[in-house]
Amino acid sequence: MSTKEHAVLSASSADRWLHCPPSVRLSEGFEDTGSSYALEGTCAHSLAEFKLRKALEYPAEDPTENLTFYNEEMDEATDEYAGYVLEQVAAAKETCADPVVLIEHRVDFSRWVKQGFGTADALVIADGTLRIIDLKYGTGIPVFAENNPQLKCYGLGALELFDDIYDIDTVAFTIYQPRRQNVSEWQILKADLLKWADEVLKPAADRAWDGNGEFSCGEWCRFCKAKTICRARAEANLKLAQYDFKLPPELSDTEIEVIPSKVDDLVSWASDITEYALQQAISGKEWHGFKLVEGRFVRKYTNETAVAKAVTDAGYDPYEKKLLGITAMQKLLGKNRFNDLLSAYIEKPQGKPTLVPESDKRPALNTAKNDFMEDKNYE
C-alpha cells in the first residue's frame, strides 16, 4: 500500500478548519503518529478498491496478503460497499449511456482552497447527477452525508474535471459505514454547492492558510493535533468549573441544559491533557507536584503453548469452555449463516434511557408524562 500525500488544508479535515481556521497553523510541528485504527481503515480501503476495480474490469492487484489488518468482517464489509457502488453505477447507466466510474481518484479543489486536493473513494459521473461515495470503515462515531464538508470538497473537485463534459445539475453524496450499519445519502444542487464554495469555503480556507480567524472548540477538536495545548479548548472546558460547588437543585434549567451537552468534551479534554502530561514526563519533563511511577502490572504467560502442554502432562485440563459472544459468533458463522441458525435465539432488550442532543437520529422515547397524556386523550 502506498503512502498518500496529504494537503495542508485537506478535505478530510475541512470540518475542523472551517470551524476553527487558526488550528491549521497551530498544529504545525506536531508529528503525525497515526494509529492502528487509521491503518485498519487504510487496509479496508485498499481491499475495497481492489474489489471494485476487479468488478469493473479495471487493472487490479489483490492486496490481501500484504494487509496488516484483514479478517472476515473486513472481507464482508468491503463486499457490501462494493455492491452498493455497483448498484449506483447500474442506476447511472439507466439514464446515461456512458457514465464515468473512478475509484480512489485524486480531485483538486484548489480553485477555492489553496493547494486543496483529496482522494475520493468512488465517483460516478453521469448526465444530471455526479455522485460521490465515501467508505468509512471505523466504528467510533457515525458519519453523515448531509452538509459534510469533506464530501462537498470532493464534489467541487469532481465538478472541475467533469462539469464541462456532462450536463450536471445535482451532486449526490453517500457515506457508507458498514460496521455501523450506516448508509447516509444527501444531495445538493450544483448551483448551491458552488455558492457555498465561494461564500463559505474559500473565505475560511484563506483564513486557515494565513493562520487568521478565531479559535473555536467543538466535536471537530477530536482529530486536531494541537488539542492538548489549545488554550481556547482549555478555557471552553474549564467554564464547567463554575458548576463544581452547586448541586443539581440549585442550578437553573438553562445551566443544566448546558452541562450534558459539554460533559463529553470535558472528559475527552481532561483525558487528552493527562495523556499529554504522561508522555512529556516519560520524555524527561518534571511536573510540579507529580512523579512518574510504575503502574499496576498484570501477569501473563510468555509461552501459552508450553504452559498448556505442561498442565496437560500433569493431568489437568488447561482450557475453559465458554460460548462465543454474539459478535464473535457472527464473525465465525458469517452474517447470513448466523441469521439462519440463530435468529430465533437472539433477543434485543430495550436499551437504557439516554439523554442525547435533539440532532441524534434515534426516535424519542415516550416518557411517563407522555403516556399519561395519551391515556387522557384516549379517554
Please tell me how large the radius of gyration is. 26 Å
Largest sheet: 5 strands, mixed
Strand order of the largest sheet: 1-2-3-4-5
- Helix/strand-derived category reads alpha+beta
CATH topology of the domain at 14-210: Lambda Exonuclease, Chain A
Order of helices and strands: HHHHEEEHEEHHHHHHH
Mean pLDDT: 86
Quaternary arrangement of the chains shown?
single chain
Question: Which residues sit in consecutive blocks of at least 5 with pLDDT less than 50?
Answer: none
Intertermini distance? 67 Å
Shape: globular
Number of helices: 12
Just name the CATH architecture of the domain at 14-210. Alpha-Beta Complex
Estimated helix fraction? 40-55%
Portion in beta strands: 5-15%
